[in-house]
Amino acid sequence: MKQLSLKRIIRGCGTWFLANLSLAAAIMLCVGCQPKNGTVASSNAEGTFGLVSVDGHQLPCTTQHEGAQPTIKSGSLTFNSDGTCLSKINFSVPPGKDLNREVKATYQQQGSELKMNWVGAGTTTGTLQSNTFTMDNEGMVFVYRK
Fold first, then answer.
1. pLDDT confidence band for 22 (50 / 70 / 90)
2. How deeply is 135 buried, as exposed, middle or buried, from its count of CB atoms within 10 A (0-12, 13-18, 19+)?
3. Would the pLDDT of 27 be above 50?
4. Up-side HSE of residue 107: CA atoms within 13 Å toward CB?
5. What 3-state DSSP class applies to 83?
6. Please, what are the domains in the chain?
7. Closest residue by Cα to residue 144 from 50, 33, 31
8. pLDDT tens digits for 40-92?
9. DSSP of 7-56, one letter per residue?
10. Phi and psi angles of residue 28, each rounded to the nearest 5 degrees, phi first
11. Distance of alpha carbon 128 from its chain centroid, rounded?
12. Dist CA 78 CA 64 (whole Å)
């Protein structure tokens, strides 16, 4: 996921802003999807998956990403039959401020692989096995279950 001028923006900001912006960028990969070619993904991806772990830690858990230490409390990833998806994450950042983040994407599915194109945030590939969806976003591994 390219962040082009994001790092330049972050450098001039305080720790609180850095924590929020860094986490928001990382979490963007958890949302909305629709295939570019107009095909509808196979029905096994359809539905809502709840976020169960990040980097192998059950929720709620505190993670580290680009100097920030957010606590991820809950999340979901919904794949729709029209090829769109929506990611929702609830997290807090020191000193305990709760935040919600929603990100949309389009997706294409080939077998067990789903390629998501996030609105304003690049591309992520994940794997669907039975009722479990796993994706690696900039080194953070998110696991969801239906």
1. very low
2. buried
3. no
4. 37
5. coil
6. 6-145 (2.40.128)
7. 50
8. 334 478 999 999 999 999 999 998 877 788 999 999 999 999 999 999 999 99
9. HHHHHTS-HHHHHHHHHHHHHGGGS----TTSPPPPGGG-EEEEEEEETT
10. -55, -30
11. 15
12. 25
